What we know:
By secondary structure, the protein is of the alpha/beta class. It has 16 helices and 21 strands. The chain has helices at residues 6-9, 55-60, 86-98, 114-126, 143-148, 169-177, 192-195, 198-205, 225-228, 283-298, 303-310, 339-350, 371-383, 397-406, 417-427, 445-475; strands spanning 4-5, 24-25, 28-29, 40-42, 65-68, 80-82, 104-109, 131-133, 157-161, 181-184, 216-221, 236-242, 250-258, 261-268, 272-278, 321-325, 328-333, 357-362, 389-393, 410-414, 433-437. The longest helix is centred in the C-terminal third of the chain and has 31 residues, at 445-475. The protein is globular and about 85 Å long. The termini are far apart. InterPro entries: Mur-like_cat_sf, Mur_ligase_C, Mur_ligase_C_dom_sf, Mur_ligase_cen, Mur_ligase_N, MurCDEF_CellWall_CoF430Synth, MurE/MurF_N, UDP-N-AcMur_synth. It is an enzyme of class 6 (ligase). It is found in: Cytoplasm. ATP binds at residues 110-116.
Amino acid sequence: xxPIAAKTLLAGLTxxxxxxxxxxxxxxxxxxxxxxxxxxxxxxxxxxxxxxDFAAKAVAAGAAWVVLNRPVEGVPEDKTILCPDxxxxxxxxxxxxxxxxxxxxxxxxxxxxxxxxKEFCAAALAGLGPTIKTEGNQNNELGLPRTLFQxxxxxxxxxxxxxxxxxxxISRLSRCAKPDIGIITCIGLSHIGNLGSRENICKAKLxxxxxxxxxxxxxxxxxxxxxxxxxxxAHVRPVWYSMxxxxxxxxxxxxxxxxxxxxxxxxxxxxxxxxxHIPALGRHNVANALAAYCAAIQAGLEPRDxxxxxxxxxxxxxxxxxxxxxxxxxxxxxxxxxxxxxQAALAMFKDYPCKRRFAVLADMLELGDEGRAxxxxxxxxVAQSGVDVLITYGELARRTATVAAAKGVRTIHANNxxxxxAFLAKVTAPGDAVLFKGSRAMELEHAVEKMRALQDxxxxxxxQAEDRNDQDDRRE
Length: 476
């Protein structure tokens, strides 16, 4: 964060006359341990800790201003900014800060693929100048302002992921970030329990337009029926991408999955045709790369430069991370799951080169009344996807197991991570592949860790046995 006039940063939160002329702020923090002289500390009431309990500590560390939901003993009145909603305070400061700079901002939302698309965008743009991006899961009303505070005078591009659980949230994020370019990857079933229908989800995603200027390009997936039939705001300019239709502005063809990623042809109506290779598996990642390509071109990149830079893409977190564990390939895709992403993962896995395919699938959450039907549909999909053995985890996933077993798939339902790990460590062999996928709250990465630990222990025991045999041979 670069120093900014306190009057500018705090505009809308407290009267300007309360702030001394010439006072600047170089840090906004929600962690009292990071408080420093001249900073703004924002207290958040939490499930386990309440930031208000640490507000006096922040003042003692030199905080110039403390944003509180209520007065706190030990925090002087002249340092207190009362705001009933700490998230609103962060968003207000984030918007005030962002307005002082002029990077090209790309906002990314959608039910599936927004993080990967964000990473493709950042990879494409980084070659042309300093680029910041949303890190981790910082895509909400707390995380987005934190990302905006990373903008500096030399920042040329900012790629911002925007998530939501309820209507209105994307609108607030967009009005704060003011994207020059927007991307909506697709409309899935995530959060349908809160929003009621995919039509409502589509409306919520289209709120990204609320902060975009007139004439701004909105990158849209032509293959998504809900986006294709949506009523788009008149002030944005749609740019369509597709993997199935030549009617889109940019489309992909000759799609081929290889050992180290995907190869395909981009047909850009304005710029021509280009061969592309991306270091990511699955047709769904071709769609993500197409969206990023469109955004990069709209941001001013030459097509060949954008394509070259996208080769620098790397998966983040637990998204399709491929590990080799004693000859067994583990595809750790545990960050999240919904029907659309499950379908994409199984399509990728079907074409993945291996001897046998083991799929560990856990509950897909936040599906509301659609949960049972979607987990049963997943069981039918597994039966069509070339999976040799299905291991399920979670109460909803029991329905997946029941349907898949009825369709002839060998199926095991596990009650805990230890059961998953023990089974896989026992039956898998070099050349096999295991896909782990489930909603974030199911924490399937623990099963991955336990499986690998068992494989390591077995390999170590085998090595020790061989050493003992060698020693016996030498004695003889």
